[in-house]
Structures are given as C-alpha cells and as structure tokens.
C-alpha cells in the first residue's frame, strides 16, 4: 500500500530530563490522517500489575536518542510501573558523558544506565540490558524512533489478547523521511528472503499474526526472553529479530503486529552493510530452511500466477495454475507441487550465490 508523503508537521515536546531546551521533531507524533486507525479504547488486562522494562541500546546519534526519549516520556501511560534501561555500546559522540549526567540525577528513579567497556553489537547489548531488567514485559526500542500518542497500549492489549499463545508483538512503523509505511511485520517472499510487509488495509484488524517483527520496537515477556536465551549473538546487527520470532514459533507461540500502534522510525541507511546482511541472511536460511520454504508457499504461488497470467502463452498446465490460485487465496492448506518445486529452486539458487560471494569459513 503506497501512501502519499505525510504533510510536514511540527511537534514540540515539553522539555524533560533528557534535554535542556524543548526538542523539536518533524512530522509529528500522531498517525497521519491518510492512515485509518480504529481508535476505540483498549482494555489492558491487569495493567496495574504489569511492570514494563524499556531496553534502549545506544550507539552515537545523541540528538536522535534525546528526541526518542522525550517522545517516550511524553507517551507513557499514566501510572505505568516501568523502568528505562539505557545501554551504550561504544558511542564516541558525547552520548557517554550525557548518560553519566542522567545516572547521577536523583529525580530519575526509573532510569538505569549501563555502559559497555567495548562495542558488543546489537544482540549482545540487548541481552545485557535484558539480564538486569526487572519487568514482567520487555519492550525493545531503537534510539532512532519517535513514539506516538497511545503507541504502547495496543501492544499491551495485543499481548494480553493472545493469552498463553503470546509470543512477540510488534507494531506499524512509518518512515520519518517519506511518511510511508515501512513495516507491518516481516514475511518470507518468493525468493526465500525475509522482507518487511508494508500493507495496512483501511480499518485493519487490531491484531495480525506474522512470521516475525523487527527488533526496532517489539514487546516480549521477560520469562519467554529468558526461555529463548535472548538474541543469538551469531547474527551481526541483523537477522537476530527474525531468528528470535521463529524460535518462539517453534514453541507454538504467536508473533503478531498490533496494527493500532503506529510509530515513526528513522529507517537505517547505514553504508557498508551489504556483506554483513548477506552473512546474516545465509545464517538465517541455513538454520530455518524448512520454515522459510513453508512460510513462502503462498508468496511463491502469487508470483507464479503473476508470471503465468501475464505471459503470452501459458507454459504450465491449467491444473497447476488452478492449484496455485487456490493456495494463494488461502483456500487450500497443502501447497501445490509447482510451489514446492519453485521454492526449492529459489533456495538452491540462493545458497549457490552465497557460496560464491561469502568468504569460506574454516
């Protein structure tokens, strides 16, 4: 779903302990008017008894960190029992000096500050923060988010609604640069690759089950995090979130997007990540090859139909086309042979490509 850019809007947060002057954030903290959101109240079960730990890893980008924390402070539900854990992973832009001023501030009883002796990476840094968390629920937050009014309540409600099946809950994320939808979950596409879903139909249901969600903003019970062992540090700043969600699914738990929770994200455009991303993708596909094949069947069928129905001549049998259409529409549970064959070919092609471009491991 392509959305027109959000009209420029300015929000001034009241100055908090994170910064001295009021912080000015472009594009506002409310969902843009061209996204329809069901705004009915949420019933969060036993909310008064739930303690939430917000885990925020930091690596440079101090102005973004301060803006994000201002937005967090401005949007926390009244009376929420919580703690905020900031953990620096080797910043060299003044972030560490700023954190030391916060850690000595007696007016911030809910704030905890950790500083890594060296750069540990995203996975290990989150794991360290989670190891000291005291909340019943952990909320992982990137430091380049701008949180919106009532972003947390739908995530809490979604987790409560899933009950004993609750795995990991994500939300809808808009690109601050373009105003367009950047994330409504992670799916496996017809090429056996995890990709961001960017669909948000009008009046979308409150809860959408998905294979995975991004670690930029996710909610998970601390007990489940500990049971899963947190993020796998074999992943280098990417892929650990998908791996975590698939490990939760292996336990029979549901990962879902709370589609009434909408936030803004400075989507990463870091240079020099291509090889690292390929390594993470290779590790994911190696570990989860059967799951990738299963999760991509309907995408494969849709891709197959698009090719066949627009071709000058149909290259395969009408029966294959019919079976692919039924499966793509969700009317059959068993994938057709043509989907199985094409998925196997796609995975074989990817592994052959990785063999050529990735350094051999001794």
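Sequence proposed for the structure above (362 residues):
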């Amino acid at each position: 779903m392509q959305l027109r850019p959000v009209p420029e809007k300015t929000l001034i947060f009241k100055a908090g302990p994170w910064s001295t002057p009021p912080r000015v954030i472009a594009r506002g903290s409310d969902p843009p008017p061209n996204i329809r959101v069901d705004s009915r109240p949420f019933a969060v079960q036993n909310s008064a008894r739930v303690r939430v730990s917000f885990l925020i890893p930091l690596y440079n980008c101090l102005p973004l960190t301060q803006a994000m924390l201002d937005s967090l402070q401005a949007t926390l539900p009244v009376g929420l029992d919580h703690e905020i854990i900031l953990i620096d992973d080797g910043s060299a832009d003044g972030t560490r000096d700023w954190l030391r001023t916060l850690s000595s501030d007696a007016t911030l009883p809910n704030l905890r500050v950790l500083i890594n002796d060296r750069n540990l990476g995203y996975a290990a840094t989150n794991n360290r923060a989670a190891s000291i968390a005291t909340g019943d629920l952990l909320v992982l937050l990137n430091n380049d988010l701008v949180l919106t009014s009532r972003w947390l309540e739908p995530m809490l409600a979604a987790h409560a609604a899933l009950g004993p099946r609750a795995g990991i809950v994500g939300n809808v994320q808009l690109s601050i640069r373009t105003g367009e939808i950047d994330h409504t979950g992670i799916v496996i596409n017809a090429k056996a690759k995890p990709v961001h879903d960017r669909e948000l139909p009008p009046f979308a249901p409150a809860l959408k089950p998905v294979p995975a969600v991004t670690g930029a903003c996710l909610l998970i019970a601390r007990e489940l995090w500990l049971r899963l062992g947190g993020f796998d540090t074999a992943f280098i700043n990417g892929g650990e979130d998908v791996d975590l969600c698939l490990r939760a699914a292996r336990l029979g738990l549901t990962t879902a997007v709370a589609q009434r929770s909408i936030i803004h994200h400075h989507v990463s455009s870091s240079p020099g990540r291509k090889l690292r991303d390929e390594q993470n993708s290779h590790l994911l596909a190696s570990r989860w090859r059967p799951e990738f094949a299963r999760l991509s069947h309907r995408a494969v069928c849709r891709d197959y139909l698009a090719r066949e129905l627009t071709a000058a001549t149909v290259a395969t049998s009408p029966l294959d086309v019919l079976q692919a259409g039924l499966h793509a529409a969700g009317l059959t549970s068993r994938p057709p042979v043509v989907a199985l064959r094409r998925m196997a070919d796609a995975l074989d092609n990817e592994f052959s490509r990785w063999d050529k471009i990735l350094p051999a491991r001794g």
